[in-house]
Amino acid sequence: MHHTNPAAGMSPRAHRHALRKQQLAMACCLALAFPLAAQAQQSAEAAPAEQSVETLDTVRVTGIRAAIATAVETKNESTSIVEVVSAEDIGKLPDISIADSISRLPGLTMQRVDGRAQVIHIRGMSEQFGGTLLNGREQVSTGGSRGVELDQYPAELINGVTVYKTPDASLVGQGLSGTVDMQSIRPLDFDGRRITFSGQGEYNSLGKLIDGSSDKGYRASASYVDQFANDTIGFAIGVARMDSPFQEQQEKAWWWGNPDTWGAPQAGKPADAVARQAGEASLKSRDITRDGVMAVFEFKPSDTFHSILDVYHSTFDQDEVENSIMWNNDPWWRDAGGNPVTYTNVGTTTVGGVPVVTSGTLNNVGALNMLNEVNTREDKLFSAGWANTIKWGDIYTLKTDLSYSRAESTRSTLELQSAFGTPRTIDFNLQTGKGFNSFNIPGLDDPTQIYLGMDAMGWGRDGRTDVASTEDTLKSGRIELNRLVESSDFLRSYDVGVNVTRRNKDRDYVAYYVDLKNGRTPIRMDAVPHGHASMDFIGLGNVINFNARDLLGRFYDLRYEASENDLMKNYGIEEDIKTFYAKANIDLDMTDTIRLRGNVGVQYVRSEQSSTGPTVARDASNDWVIAGGQTIGASYGDILPSMNLSADFGDGLLLRFAAAKTLMRGPIEQMGAYTTAGVDVTTREWSGSGGNPKLEPYRATAYDISLEKYFGPTTYAALAVFYKSLETYIYTQNVRWDFTGYDDLGITPISNWGNFSTPVNGSGGYMRGAELSGAIGGDMIHPSLDGFGLLLNASYTESSIDPDGPGGSSTDTLPGLSKVVANATVYYEKHGFSARISQRYRDEYRGEYASLFGDRIYQNTMAESTMDLQVGYDFPETSKLSGLSVLLQVNNVTNEPYRTETTAGGIDQTIFLPSEYKEYGRQYLLGFRYKL
Description:
about 950 residues, mainly beta, 31-stranded mixed β-sheet, 5-stranded mixed β-sheet, 44 strands, disordered N terminus
């Protein structure tokens, strides 16, 4: 027999986390074995010969344990494979944001954006592959694509979240990776009036990084729930406000390389050594203000009629100021006298057998630029839905639902440049692993040496400003009929329905160059109002800071000079989706001890899509202009069968199986009819590049198996495996293209076919993985541990898909894919006191982020482990302070950095070196909650 070493052939980078992953998996397995051992011991000690059926609701618990018990019960009773987060009480989810709460669920993790949890990755796939619903209705997004930013929804106004990991024929708007459904409260579910108030003060540990910024904020919320007319009318309203500071310290390498390979040696640099060729350091201070209101009106005059109206509205405003310093020291830059950058006092470190320059001095660095930026973001969200349920004849139920969702977003940036009058020297000491680098650049706080303007990087401007606007609307109507079947031994009921959706997403973008007045004459900084910001975190001390918006009208003029990319960001998308579905609901006793329940169904989805976008070309002055435009579209249909089966063996043991075909529409930003395509005046042949308004969805076939054992209200263990076969993935390729309908700008082509570079549906691959999860109540182990509890989960996911297409880079992974994700929460709750500490780990992954000038980029993001802490006390009913709770929360307890890596160019080996390193600080919140 032939044996292999699992570590053989592994790269150093792939191997370096192996031991930690094995230890993590071992710890999770051992912890999840505790309830099994406890159950076995209890069974052995049980005296009665007769067994009694246990239910999950025999013990009444409150607070943290009540939320866990509700979540466990919902998971147990669902016919689909789901994960659940439930509020401990009205407006009291277990974390400060929805994304934080659900990112602890098995197989899920969050991506930090600007230091906060913003989007969710399900089973190794980015937010673009997941569906997001509010009360079962599809939601639009404030971003440029489909991924919903969950920080737009206050946790105080959400009562629970269900994550569907398997499709269901009656679930409309579901994603390929999974579907997140947020739920508001239902006032008639309560037995009386409820009024709550809460408030928290907030502090960021990094302090005030920039003059005029803030390190303190607050959160406040209130809710009112009541019932009227003999509990036939219910009304609830909640409001929440957040004024939160976020700080960021960043240091970044633009690129690493060995320019000797390209015939460009640098004086003083050791031969064939890899060196950092450009760098950047920045400070950011943000103030985020979010106001949200959720209202619910519920009317149930009888058991045969039920009507619910939900309305949600929020505004989200972000003001950001940024100070940054950037320089270019590559061998191709020259000063006015033609002199390059040189090295002295060089030290190197060997990385993967390659010498890497990690210390020394850069001389004659003239391409050194300082940017002061002011960036704003204004988002508005509105969502409304009206659902009605009518029952008649004891067997028929008719459901109707009308909904509307709208998102408006405006984002603006303004950057102004300043620089030294002469080249500088830069002393540096670089890390090849974790940690900030250190630098020394004399004169950064001296206003007599620094000038507005100078254009040290040769960009042809003294600044830049842009405004990007997005409007996303979705209208939907649905009707569903359910019929009970009393004569069948296995078919309990069936559903038939149709849902019609129209979505419109429009994007507008405009950019201007900013030039100093008087022919771009530089202005010395001592003649300009300014302050200071501290860059002590990388050894640079104080640097000059000014408010870019205050200086704009006084010192600058705007110049319109659009680029090709700028103009192609103006387009609109329209989608008309009709979903017809039928589902049979199954419930039968297969044997005396095995009960089978679930559903089998099918959707037929008819899609019609179109886009109106510009044709961008150069005019007679060689400037980029919108020279024409077109409306292009496509239509197609998909049949999507699905099956969810759950075999209940009794005593809390369940085996689930699911299979389905599913789809997720392509990224909206890739579907615009924007193009540079044109007809060559000489050959009269079409060619160009642009978006693909004919782009069809990602399509996949998915299989899931889950084995679950429920031991009590707060205790369970589960093992799930899944496999997704993606029939197609979307890649940018050069293809033969039918340009029928495109604007030829007056030049008649010899054929409507030509070459086009655009995103297209290419070959797919698999996604597969396993998830181990469990919740353990301390009393299951020993009575002395009553009040303690533990939540654990770990997952492993892998994929065969290369996101760059066949033959692409072997170092890139699917966006959002972390092979290993793990979460652990230890809690204690008794006698009014509660405490919880949570640790979240995700392996390295390829993240998708908003970038400069409205673009989106991918970055290789390193593994991270974040810790959050909560401590609270609820005053008892016997106290004069009954109804009052106090709570201390600390997010990012260990100040976990955000890190990215990049490969080095000009060498045969593949080595990874640091790119970005950011710290966001710890977030402290201290507050109260009062319930009447």
